[in-house]
Design a protein that fits this description.
Elements lengths: L1 E3 L2 E3 L4 H14 L14 H10 L5 E4 L3 E2 L5 E9 L2 E9 L3 E7 L2 H13 L6 E3 L6 E6 H5 L3 H16 L5 H13 L11 E4 L5 E4 L5 H10 L1
Antiparallel strand pairs: 1-2, 3-5, 4-5, 5-6, 6-7, 7-9, 8-9, 10-11
Helix pairs in contact: 1-2, 5-6
Length: 218
Amino acid sequence: MRRAGTAFQVAASGGDAVRLARLYLLYGPPLLEGGDERLINHKLAEAVVLGAKGALNIRWDGIRRTKGGRVAADLTISEGGVEVKYNVYLRNDILLQFRSSNRGRVELAAHLLKLAGVDAEVGRESGKDIWYVRATTDKLAAGRKELRDALAEIVREALAKGGVDAGKAERWLEKLEGGLTLREGQPKYHVRLARSGALEVRYRSTNPGNIEREATAA
């Protein structure tokens, strides 16, 4: 770290750069948010891609019944030594959620879900100091293959134990195994004329899965 006028500069290289990039992935890079081109730090965008090379670890624990009789399981997403355990409920749909009175912890849970390719936002329960992030079947089926595979295993286990209807399980598995592309939240590209006169088309995202998807499509 060094002083640069009235501000400070932080530089990292090698393995430290990768660890720093993972912090941006986990806790959210504010300079990548918003639409003001002047505020976007392009080096930070590169750091996000660099940090994305650290693979997410997704695992789940055995099927159980809640006190209300619902079929449930625990699913854990971890990256860079940080992990969050989510509740998965099999109802009329698949519901994955994380709830806490600690908003920062819920924000982290939302970031990890976004890294897993799921469009999820933090919400607050009405009249309570309880925060949550949740996603249901279609949004989950639009996520990364590792997540979809883990959820499919939960569904198969529940089906084998008679916890879910066969027809319902078949519909869920069809979505999870094939994956979904949702119309809502489709990628937005920024198109402009560069100073050279060339047409420039750009796509930016803090979600590495989205970046990889668009790069493959291009």
